[in-house]
Amino acid sequence: MAMEDEDNNAAGAATNTQTGIKKGGDVGDDGACIDRQPDTVVHQAGLNQTAGRGSRSGPGAPAATGIRVLKQRNMKRNGSRGCVTRKTRFGSRERDWLKGDTQRGCVCLYGETVDPQPPASGPQASSTPQTDLQLVLCSTSTTVEELCAQRDGRGLYVQLHGDLVRRLDPSERPLQILYDYLAAMGYADPVRVQHEAANSDLSCLIRFYSEHPVNADQQERTLLKGVFSVRKGKTQLHKWAERQVILCGTCLIVASVKDSLTGKMHILPLVGGKVEEVKRRQHCLMFSSAGSQAQTYFVNFDTLADFQRWHRQASKVVSQTVSMVDLSCYSLEAVPEYLFYSQDITHLNLRHNFMSLQGPGGLLNLPRFSQLKSLNLSHNRLGVFPECVCEILTLTELNLSCNNLHTVPVQIGNLQSLQTLSLDGNHLSSLPEELGGLSQLNCLGLSFNNFSHIPAVLERLSAVDKLAMAGNRVESLELCTLARMSHLKNIDLRLNGLRWVKSESLEAVSQVTQLDLRDNCLDSLDLSSICNLETLQCQRNQLGTLTLSGFTLRMLHASSNRLTTVNIYPVPNQLTHMELSQNLLEYLPDWVCDCRKIEMLDVTHNLLSELPSRLLNSLSLRKLLAGNNRLQRVPDLLDHVPLEALDLQHNKLTELPESLFYKALNLKYLNVSANTLESIPPSSQSEESLSTLQELYLTGNSLNENCGALLVGHQNLRVLHIAYNQLLSFPASKLSKLELLEELNLSGNKLKTIPSTVSSCKRLHTLIAHSNHINVFPEILSLPEIKLVDLSCNELTEIQLPDSLPATLQELDLTGNSSLMLEHKTLNLFSHITTLKLDQKSTTTAGDSLSASTPWNHGYSEMSGQRNKLCVSVLTVDRFGDGVEACYGIFDGDRNEEVPRLLQCTMGDVLCEELQHSSIDSVYMCNTFLTSHRKLGMAGQKLGASALLCYIHHEPSDPGGHLSLTVANVGTCQAVLCRDGRPVALSKVYSLENCTEEMERVKVSKAIITEDNKVSGVTCCSRLLGCSYLSPWVLPKPWVHTEPLCSQDEFLILGNRALFERVSYQEAVCTVQAVRDPRAAAKKLCSLAQSYGCKDNIGAVVVSLHIGEDSCTCEPPVSTAEPRGPPPAPVPVSVTPGPADPATLSSSSGGVSEFNSETSASEVGSEAGSTASDEHQSSGPTSRPERRCSLHPATTLCGIMVPGSGGAGTHPGLFQRQPSCATFSSNQSDNGLDSDDEAPLEGVISNGSKLEVEVDIHCCAFQLRSGAPESPKDLDLEKRGSDYPNGKMRRQNSVVVSATNGCLLAVCGREITDLKKSPSTSSLFGKKLSNGSVVAPEDSHNLIEVALEAPKKKSGYFTAPAQQDPEDQLIVPPSLEQEVREQLRGQSPLVSGPSAPSTAPILKDPVWDHPHPPAFASSLVPGPGPAPILQQEVYDTAL
C-alpha cells in the first residue's frame, strides 16, 4: 500500500511535528531542492557499490552492514511541496532495498536540542535554525550499538506520545521497537507496518533521538545554576563577589567559581524561609533561611529573565511545609548530584522516570539522604527490586508500583520504620517471610499482581487493616483464612476471577467490616458468617442467591447480577443504602419494609409488579428508584413522608396516588416518563400549595392540556419535561405562574403556539419544542437568560424579532420548518449566535435528483444537556465515493470537543483513501481507524474519543449486487439495525465493565484500574482513538462487522453511550418506527434520553433505508426537451456567520446548514469535512438521460459526464478520482507561504498543537453546458419547481468559472448577483488567500466552516486555507485520452487561466515508487452532444 500522506506532508515533515526542524532532501532528481552534506555515510547490504553522491567509502568508513544514514540539513521553505517528496527522500536503490524485505525500514533520528513540545507557531519556528534530522535505513536486527558505531554516536533515546524520553540499551533494536509498537496498535500486514513506520505523522506517537532532548522548563525545575554577584548577610560588612549559585532541591548553594564541588560551599536551607525582591537594586533577590539563626544571601542577577526564573522556583520551595522534592515525570536516569547537599529532604518523588542503579546520582546513592522518610519510585521500569533502598532505615513510606518486579528481597525486613508499602502493578506471586517482621506496616498494596492466594505472611502483619489485592488471580476464598488474619477489616478482591467463597467451618469472621467482590465470576454468595459486615459490593457477578448477616449491615451494592431474592437475617436495622438494580427480582423481600433507617433504594431494571405500601410510607426513605419494572399502580400515601426523589419511569402506571404531592411535601424530583398516565394528581387539597417540587418529567404519557392547570401549584418548578403527550395547547395563564422555570420541553405534542406568557418565566434558559405544529415564533427572545431554543420540525413561516437579541442566546434550531423565510434583517440579528441551524432552501439541481434516488436518507441530533460544551460530533455522507455508497459516523469525546471534531472532518476521507488499497472490510476499516488515530497528532496524545463508522457499499466481488453494511467502532458508541421490527446490534461496547476479554487484556498488561473501573483513573474504555499515552492498555484497533442488507432492513440508528444508557435498543427501534422522518426521529431519541434522566451530551443519527428485494431502484427513462445542467460541485469553504441571503444557504435536499461563530466543526453541516461526496449527474442540452437508480447510476464523477455515458456509452466508469486530503496532523505541514514575512496562519487548539486543514477544492472539474438564454417565463417556471418528481429542479443557464493555481471553481451564473449582495458572501469574490488559493461561495452542504471572512477570527481548527495537493487530481485512462483532449480543445477558450494536458499515469509499484503526477488540467470537460456557443460570464477571482 502506498503512503499517500507523505506526499501531502513531505518526506521531511517529521522534523516539523514537534521540533520545528526544516525539511531536507536526499538522493533525487530535484537537485535544486536538495541540501546534502558531503560526508553522508552510505552503506547498503547486498549492494556492491555505494551511492554516487555524498558518499564516502574506503578504510575510513565504518563497516556496519544494513545501515544507511541520510543526513538532511535545514532547508529554506519556499512553499513548494515538490522540493521534499518521497522521491527525494529515498533514491531508487533505497526503495529497491526496502522492498526487498519487510524486515527493513527507516528510523528517523532527531537531534539533541530538539524540544519535546512543538513551537506555538509553526512559520516563526521555521525561520530559526534547528538541528539535523537523520534518516537511517536499517533492519529489525540492527541494534543500538551498531547504529551508534555507524554514526559515532553515544546512544539513542526513544520518546512515546510526546512524553518521557528513555535511553535505549545497546542491545535494543530501534526498528523492531517501532514495528512492535505498530503491531500492538493493530496493524497486521508487514508491508503496511513497513510503510507506516516511515510516515512522518508517526513522530507524535513514537520518535527516536540521537541525543537526549533538552527541555528548558524541565531543567529549570530540577536545577538552576549560574555565576552571579553575591553578598552575604544583611549588613554592609560583606562585599559583593562573583560566586557560583545553585538552587537544587530545598537548598541554595553558594560556592567558589573555580572550585564549585571541591572548595568551600555555603548551603542555605530554604524550606520555611523567605525569598524577597530587593527594591533598591535591579534584579536582586534576598534569600533567607528559617529559624532564629537565619542566614541571608543577596544575589544580583544579570537579566530580568534570570531574576524571574529564580524568584519563581525559590518561591515554591520556601512555601513548602515539609522538605519535599518532586522530580516526577522528568525522564531522569539519575538525580542531580547537587541534590545530595539538601540533607533536610524528607520526601522525594521520583515517579515516572528511568532511574538507574549506578552513577553519581543513581539509586545506590539514595542512602546518602539521612532524613528521608518517603520515597516514590513507581513507574521506573526497574525490573528488579532495588536492594539499596532497604538501607534507608528512616523510610516510613515506599512506593515501587509498576516496576515489573518479580520478587521482593529478604532485605525488606531492615525497614523497621516502614508504615506504607505499595507494590501494585508488578508480577509478584509471593512475599518473603521477612516482610512479616515489619511491625509498623499498616498499609500494603498488592493489587494487580499475580497472586493466586492470599499470602500467609499477612497473618503476622498485625497492623495491616486493609487487604488490597484487586486484579490478582485469586479464584477461591476461604473464609477461615480471613478468620486467622484477625487484623484485616477491609478486603478488596475485585477483578480476581473469583469463583467460590467457601465457609467450611462454623467459625465466625468477626473483624471484616468492608468487602469488595465486584467484577468476579461468583454465581452464589453466602457471607452469613461475616457477622459484622457493614459494606458489601458485589456488582457485575452472576449471583443467583445472596445470603448476608444483617447485624451491622449499612450498605449493600449488588446490581448487575441475576438475583431473584436476597436473604438477610436478622433484619438490617442499620441499612441505609441498597442497590439491587438490573437483577431478576419479581418482588421485594419483606425485610426491606422493616428496615428502620433505609434512605436510598434502587430497584430499577427488575421485574417488580408492585411496591409494598409499607415501603412507600417509610419514615426514613428519601430516594426511591423503581423505573423499568412492571408496576401498574403506586400505593397511596397514608401520612406525610420524607421522600425527596421518586423515579417510576418505564412502568405501566395509569395514575398516581391522589395524595402524592401533599403527603410528600419534601418531594423535589419526580420522573414518571414512559407510562400511560392520563392525568397527574393535584399539588394540594386547597388553593395554597406547599409543594417543593423542582424537577418534573412527564414525557411519553397520554396527558392532555388539562394537566396544565394542575401544574400551577408547583411554583418552585425549575425543570419541566412534558414532551410526547397529547397537548393541543398549554394554558397561558398557568404558564405565567411558573416564574422559576429554567428548562421547558414541550416537544412531540400538537401545539400550534406557545403562550406569550412564557415571557413571564424570566429564568428560562432552555426551550425545546420541536416536532409540534407551531406556526408563530414564541416571545422568548426577550428573556434575559435564554440560551437554547429548539423549534425544529414545526410549521413556522416567519419570525417577529425584537430590535436586539439577548447576548446569552447560544443555539437556535429552526430546521424542519419548510415554509420559513428569513429576511436579511433577521439574519443580521442572528449573527452573534454561536450555533444557528437552518434548513437549506430548495434551490436544488439535477444532482439532487440523483441524490434523492439513493435508497437511504438520514437525520441527526446533538444535544449538550447540562454540559457547557458539546463533545459529540457526527459524520453523515449520503453519497460517498464513486458508486452508490454512504458513510455515517458518530464520535464522542466525553470531556473534550477537539478530537470528535477532528475525526468528523478527516475520517471520511481516510476511509476513501483506504478503499483504494484494499477491498477486505476488516482491513480497510481497521486501517481507517489506525490512520485516523495517527492523524490526530498531538491532540491525540492526551485526548481521545469513542468512534463509530458505518459504510454502506456493494460487495467488491459483486459490484452490481446486494448492498452490505460494514460497521467499525471503538469505545462506547453503538449502532443498531432495525430488521423486521427487531433490533440487531452491530457494534461492540469496548468498556471494561461490558467486555470481560478486554478487562483481562488490560489486567495482563499491568494497568492500574481504579475503583470506578477506569484505566489509570482516566477512561472506562479499553479502545479509543487518541489517548495514546495510555498505550498499550488503550488501543485504537476497532471491532469490525459486516452485515448484508436486505429488504427487511428499515433503518439504522447510531448513538453514543449516553443515548443507549437511557434508551434500550428495542425502545429506540420502536421510537423510530413511530416517527419515520429520520430527523424528527433522531430528535425524539435525544429528547427521550434527556427526559429519562441523562444530563450528558447526547448524539443520535437515524438512517432510513429503502432497499428493495434486488437492491435496485431503477425507473423507466423520461424524455423532456428542457435542458438541465449540473450544479457546482461541492467546495468546502469558510464563511463567518452573519447576514446571508437565503439563496446562499442552500444545499442538497435534506441538508442542514449550521452557523457557528466559534467555527465548531461538530455543528457545521452534517457532511462537514468530507470532500468525497455529491457527484452530480450531467445531461446534454436537448435531452435528459435515462434516470437511473442509485445502485446503477449514470457514470459521473465530480460533476464530469464520462463521454458516451448518456447513450450506448463505452468505457463506463473509467474516470477515477484520487482521494481528497483533509489532513489533520500535528506536523507543521507546508502552508505554501512564499516568504517568511507573510503572515502565518493560526490554528492552535487548547493543548497547543498546530492543526492545518487542507480542503480539497482543486479537484473539482465541472461540465460546462450551454443553452439559449431563458425567458422570464422560464425563470418563473423554474422558481415554482420542475417536472422532476421531487420538485426541486433548477435551471442553470451559465456557469461562472475560475481557474487559479489549478483550482477550478464554479458558481451558477444566475446566483452571482444574489451572492454578491449578501454581506456574508460578497467578500468572497476576488478574495485571495495568503497561499494563493481562491475559494468561491457554493450552495453546498459540504462546508468545512461557515465563513471565509475569517481573518476576523484567527483561532479555531479550520483557519488554514485550502492548499493545492499535486497528487489530488483526475486520472484519465489512456483509452480516453485522445477523446478528452479533443473535447478540452473545443472548450479551452471559455476558461480563464493556464491549461495543461492530462497524461496517463505511469503504473509503478504503488508503495515506494510515486512519480510526479500529471499536471491538473485547468479545463472543463464538456458533456456529450452539441453545445451551441453562448457568451459566458467569467470571473477570475485570482485578480
Automatic annotation (TrEMBL):
<dbReference type="GO" id="GO:0016020">
    <property type="term" value="C:membrane"/>
</dbReference>
<dbReference type="GO" id="GO:0005634">
    <property type="term" value="C:nucleus"/>
</dbReference>
<keyword id="KW-0597">Phosphoprotein</keyword>
<dbReference type="GO" id="GO:0046872">
    <property type="term" value="F:metal ion binding"/>
</dbReference>
<feature type="region of interest" description="Disordered">
    <location>
        <begin position="1385"/>
        <end position="1406"/>
    </location>
</feature>
<dbReference type="InterPro" id="IPR050216">
    <property type="entry name" value="LRR_domain-containing"/>
</dbReference>
<feature type="region of interest" description="Disordered">
    <location>
        <begin position="48"/>
        <end position="67"/>
    </location>
</feature>
<feature type="compositionally biased region" description="Low complexity">
    <location>
        <begin position="9"/>
        <end position="20"/>
    </location>
</feature>
<keyword id="KW-0433">Leucine-rich repeat</keyword>
<feature type="region of interest" description="Disordered">
    <location>
        <begin position="1"/>
        <end position="35"/>
    </location>
</feature>
<keyword id="KW-0904">Protein phosphatase</keyword>
<keyword id="KW-0539">Nucleus</keyword>
<feature type="region of interest" description="Disordered">
    <location>
        <begin position="1115"/>
        <end position="1189"/>
    </location>
</feature>
<dbReference type="InterPro" id="IPR001611">
    <property type="entry name" value="Leu-rich_rpt"/>
</dbReference>
<dbReference type="InterPro" id="IPR032675">
    <property type="entry name" value="LRR_dom_sf"/>
</dbReference>
<dbReference type="InterPro" id="IPR003591">
    <property type="entry name" value="Leu-rich_rpt_typical-subtyp"/>
</dbReference>
<feature type="domain" description="PPM-type phosphatase">
    <location>
        <begin position="857"/>
        <end position="1105"/>
    </location>
</feature>
<comment type="function">
    <text>Protein phosphatase involved in regulation of Akt and PKC signaling. Mediates dephosphorylation in the C-terminal domain hydrophobic motif of members of the AGC Ser/Thr protein kinase family; specifically acts on 'Ser-473' of AKT1, 'Ser-660' of PRKCB isoform beta-II and 'Ser-657' of PRKCA. Akt regulates the balance between cell survival and apoptosis through a cascade that primarily alters the function of transcription factors that regulate pro- and antiapoptotic genes. Dephosphorylation of 'Ser-473' of Akt triggers apoptosis and decreases cell proliferation.</text>
</comment>
<feature type="compositionally biased region" description="Polar residues">
    <location>
        <begin position="1385"/>
        <end position="1398"/>
    </location>
</feature>
<keyword id="KW-0472">Membrane</keyword>
<feature type="region of interest" description="Disordered">
    <location>
        <begin position="1270"/>
        <end position="1289"/>
    </location>
</feature>
<dbReference type="Pfam" id="PF00481">
    <property type="entry name" value="PP2C"/>
</dbReference>
<keyword id="KW-0963">Cytoplasm</keyword>
<feature type="compositionally biased region" description="Polar residues">
    <location>
        <begin position="1154"/>
        <end position="1182"/>
    </location>
</feature>
<keyword id="KW-0464">Manganese</keyword>
<keyword id="KW-0378">Hydrolase</keyword>
<dbReference type="InterPro" id="IPR001932">
    <property type="entry name" value="PPM-type_phosphatase-like_dom"/>
</dbReference>
<dbReference type="Pfam" id="PF13855">
    <property type="entry name" value="LRR_8"/>
</dbReference>
<dbReference type="GO" id="GO:0005737">
    <property type="term" value="C:cytoplasm"/>
</dbReference>
<keyword id="KW-0479">Metal-binding</keyword>
<dbReference type="Pfam" id="PF23598">
    <property type="entry name" value="LRR_14"/>
</dbReference>
<dbReference type="GO" id="GO:0004722">
    <property type="term" value="F:protein serine/threonine phosphatase activity"/>
</dbReference>
<protein>
    <recommendedName>
        <fullName>PH domain leucine-rich repeat-containing protein phosphatase 2</fullName>
        <ecNumber>3.1.3.16</ecNumber>
    </recommendedName>
</protein>
<dbReference type="InterPro" id="IPR055414">
    <property type="entry name" value="LRR_R13L4/SHOC2-like"/>
</dbReference>
<dbReference type="InterPro" id="IPR055071">
    <property type="entry name" value="RA_PHLPP-like"/>
</dbReference>
<dbReference type="InterPro" id="IPR036457">
    <property type="entry name" value="PPM-type-like_dom_sf"/>
</dbReference>
<keyword id="KW-0677">Repeat</keyword>
<feature type="compositionally biased region" description="Basic and acidic residues">
    <location>
        <begin position="1271"/>
        <end position="1282"/>
    </location>
</feature>
<dbReference type="Pfam" id="PF23010">
    <property type="entry name" value="RA_3"/>
</dbReference>
